[in-house]
Design goal:
single chain, alpha/beta, 6-stranded parallel β-sheet, two-stranded antiparallel ribbon, 13 helices, binds zinc ion
Length: 366
């Protein structure tokens, strides 16, 4: 099988870059449909309007209705046709990018993605997650291309809630370990081929960046300061983790996350917070050396990622519920089967229990 790497065509990251969006956009179209939330427009609408005044590309703003559903996608396609837009720009969070990517795909136009948070590895990917209008998962839409541009304005991200960027570190924490598992098993990545050395190197850099910069970044963010450590963590959460997961592969951590979605108790937790616990569980399944396990758990505790059921909101979880999570994580088409050894609901349930116990131990609870 071939080795395949995919990535966005252009990645831009820096303080104040959103003010240049109009200039960047003119290389891709004459009239952009800009998808943004009402709150987002209130915060940065004026600077966006200003940046398009100096651009050869004009802007047509539309408020996102809150769900990346087929109805919302079709509504926006109609607006694209009616207003004769030849470019889509999504500004905000995950569901806005997924919708913008899908609309651009169906309209065969370029797409620019401008996250205002750094909470997941989704912005750079060639993937949209489609939900029903009620917010229930419907399907993955695999796109033939990654976004033309991903633009991260680090000033804007620094002003977003710190917990979101920490959750992004939880998502990024999984990248290297899932990549390593896929390399060992020879699994096919989301890019449709085997892992390249380049994707592995980016996944490792992602992990090393979190270990070196994560805590420094969190403290700086709490002080509202956009420092070099913050810049490095935003890159790790978005670009390194994005290319890493997509081109090197997903394995245990994300499948265990998916299993955890069956627990009502954890619904208030962010994706990356659950992925962090999924990462610890994957390391238990792999029976990694104690130093590696300790390094990861200590990191989670220090930045404030959950390491126990209690911290995940499921203090009174029963053995039956743990088994439900384990069974869901082992779903036939999920990525737990990319691990380099056989995984069963029984071994996953045991690893989940042990992960929680290690968390309590390192927290000094018992
Ligand atoms: Zn993720």
């Amino acid at each position: 099988m071939a080795r395949i790497l995919i990535s966005p065509s252009k990645y831009i990251q820096g303080a104040g870059e959103m003010k240049k969006l109009g200039t960047y956009a003119q290389a891709y179209g004459k009239k952009a449909l800009i998808l943004i939330s009402k709150g987002g427009y209130k915060r940065i609408g004026a600077e966006l309007e200003e940046s398009f005044k100096q651009s050869e590309c004009s802007a047509e703003f539309d408020y996102f209705n809150g769900e990346c559903s087929k109805n919302e996608i079709n509504r926006l396609i109609e607006i694209m046709k009616e207003k004769e837009c030849d470019l889509v720009i999504g500004i905000g969070g995950g569901k806005i990018f997924d919708t913008a990517k899908a609309v651009a795909h169906y309209q065969k136009t370029p797409v620019l993605i401008c996250p205002t948070i750094a909470s997941t590895d989704a912005p750079c990917s060639a993937l949209s997650v489609i939900y029903t209008d009620e917010g229930v998962f419907e399907e993955y839409l695999f796109l033939p291309a990654n976004p033309n541009v991903v633009l991260m304005d680090t000033d804007i991200i620094t002003k977003s809630p710190v917990r979101l960027t920490v959750a992004g570190m939880g998502d990024a924490l999984a990248t290297y370990f899932e990549a390593r598992a896929c390399k060992r098993s020879g699994a096919t990545s989301c890019a449709g081929g085997k892992t390249t050395g380049a994707a592995m190197a980016l996944a490792k850099l992602c992990f090393d960046t979190l270990m070196e910069e994560g805590i420094k970044a969190k403290i700086a963010l709490e002080a509202g300061a956009c420092t070099e450590a913050v810049e490095k963590v935003i890159e790790a959460n978005t670009l390194l983790s994005g290319i890493g997961f997509e081109s090197a592969g997903l394995a245990g951590a994300h499948a265990i996350h998916n299993g955890m979605t069956v627990l009502e108790e954890c619904h208030h937790m962010y994706h990356g917070e659950k992925v962090a616990f999924g990462t610890i569980t994957q390391l238990v399944l792999e029976n990694v050396p104690q130093e590696e396990l300790e390094e990861v758990i200590d990191f989670c505790i220090e930045v404030g990622l959950p390491v126990t059921w209690k911290e995940l909101g499921a203090e009174h979880i029963t053995d039956e519920q743990i088994m439900e999570v384990a069974k869901a994580a082992c779903a036939e088409n999920d990525t737990l089967h990319n691990m380099p050894f056989e995984v069963t609901p029984e071994t996953v349930a045991a690893a989940l229990k042990a992960a929680d116990a290690y968390g309590r131990y390192y927290l000094g609870e018992e």
